[in-house]
Amino acid sequence: MPDTGQRGRARQRRNRPGRWLAYLFLGLGAAVMVVPFVASVANSLKNFAQYVAVPPIWVPDPPAWSNYSQVWERAPFGLYAWNSFLIATLAVVGNVVTSAMVGHALARMKLPGKEVLLAAALGTLMLPTVVTIIPNFILYKHLGWLDTMLPLVVPYWLATPFGIFLMRQTFLAIPRDFEEAAALDGANPWQVFWRVHMPLAKPALATLGVFTFMASWGAVLEPTIYLTSPEKYTLPIGVMSLQGQFMGNDQLVTAAALMSLVPMLLLFLLAQRYFVRGAMASGLKG
Amino acid sequence: MRMQRFSPGRRLVALAGVAALAATMFGCGAGSAESDGRVTIRLGYYAEAGGPADKTMRSLADEFMKANSGIKLELESAPYTDFFKRLRTQLAGGRGPDVWLSDGVLVQEYAGRNSLRDLSDFVKTINTDDYYGVDLNRDSDGHVYGFPQGAQTPVLFYNKKMFADAGVAEPTGDWTYDDLTAAAKKLTRDTNGDGKPDVWGMRVYSPGFTESWWPMIKAFGGDIVADGGHKVVIDSPQSRAGLDWMLNAMYTEKAGPDVVTTKALGSPHTMFASNRVAMQFGIYARTIPANAAKIDLGVAPMPKGPAGRGHVAIANSWVVNKAANQRKAEAAWKWITYFASEKPQTNWAGIGEAIPINKKVAASDVFLKPGTPPANRQAFLDALAEADDLGLNPVWTEYTTAVANQIDRALAKEKPVGDALTDAQRDAQQIIDRFYANK
Known about the structure:
Chain A is mainly α. Chain A contains 14 helices and no strands. Chain A has 2 domains: 4-44; 73-282, MetI-like (MetI-like fold). In chain A, 73% of the residues lie in helices and 0% in strands. Chain B folds into 2 domains: 39-151 and 314-386, Periplasmic binding protein-like II (D-Maltodextrin-Binding Protein, domain 2); 155-310 and 395-438, 3-Layer(aba) Sandwich (D-Maltodextrin-Binding Protein, domain 2). In chain B, the strands form 3 sheets. Chain B has a 5-stranded mixed beta sheet with strand order 2-1-3-11-4. A 4-stranded mixed beta sheet of chain B has the order 6-9-5-10. Chain B has a two-stranded antiparallel ribbon with strand order 7-8.
């Protein structure tokens, strides 16, 4: 009998240079990703003179920890975070429920011209937001929704093209046997949707939820246009509102931006399992 | 499959939750209710949240409302870029603020697009000699669409410590552009021994042309537009002389970073604050980063060119929405004149962003001796008194961008100066002609 253990170790020794090369490439890749983040942390701890210094100072001495407290003194960031959380959560609920309903109808129900409807919905994805911002502004003005959170939430309750597409693809992939079995048990179409198909679509729903949360949480243009009262600001425009015209305040903006990352980071860590699985199942890149 | 039923208690809690949510969502929309007899005007301005300008503006608004119980101000602020992004949408959607703070260079742009109320009749009721910058807002037909809030004009900023270290005499009011080049050359150094300068005597080029080629071209006798902003006149031997001085300073004397290096070093506004250059042309607001970086700051008059000092100025101004009714317009004018009065101008001068437009405040110790550098603040006032506008017209942003694109190429040595000026004149004139042809 050949000594497989010895052969394995020999193969490992032969592969060692390759492995080190792989580590090197991975390390370089990791550095490329991490260095900007580390630089941001360092920038958030600089005073103005340190921030503008050439060549750049990598480790501020002394660190300006006060930048973080100044951010909180200048603007109510707790309130901004709450506003963002509220808007993003309502957007997630609305988009997940309504997109699933529309996606389910397009995937499972007999509906004349549903392919055309899907194409029309997907076509709106091609329109940049700036093209629709003025018509939307006029619409919201007439509805009395300006300077409220409604323009940032209600559109998500009308299903989004991306959500419809994602959910339609998900429901198409579910075998018909499930609904046939449920129908034999007396389930009506709503019950099939809610009790049978929705549980099977959990990974896609989670993916849609995370994507929606990220889009809503990070939205800048719409909140900038629609919200004028500072107490209604969301976190991104709260962060941007620290930008000075004549001095930049980049160190404060960086500190605020880093703090605003924390909720997203927590969400990603909590939903990572669903997120990766859903993204793989849908063939989408994050 | 049985529906779950909520208990009455749970229903009540759910209803209360929905009501609270709805209240949060709807908030109190920015209405302009005048049911209490007060006239409500929406007032927009640009400022960083919680910064000195924002705090001062809010406190002045409170004081104004206390003194004018019949007027309620609803403030809308955002940082500069976001403010104008939002404003464009608001105006297009028919819901602009009633009165707002405009960058001085944009007043005629909004007026030319029919968004502003003509303030000429209001302005006739006050003595304009008491204020700086009123004429900077007068259009070619003599109409005034904005009233100054604060002024900016460039002078020569210099780093006193760098001058002392190099043993170079500080700038004076007698300096010419030749003196500027000579001093800048002496102040340029190679500090890391790589054979290339890394500290320069002067920031010659800046993408912010108010502090760069615009006053330089004027100092050499050239100009950018004439005939009330209708005619582009930049293609002249004098303009060429101004740009040649810049090219000589950057590439022959190597006394200033070239265009590529200037852009590579980050914001040109921070070069002086980071001790990379010993001199720059700087508007008054540049004292803020210089003082924040604890630069030993001095200012001097702009150097003399063959045709003078090329002074230019911007009067950031209050403007009134054309859609505002007479009652709101009168309330807005009350706010504007209040802001131009001594106490608010004194408070505003305290934050150090702009030269007070109230001449009495500008001539007082509040502005001239505030206890922070620079000492010779009179240089700003002397420049302001002689300054021209920045070639304002309704297509200012568009035509100056066309001119700047060509000049930047010439200064980066991508194109001969003569060709760049010819092309700049052609491109800019087309933009202006197109606007007036469609009007």
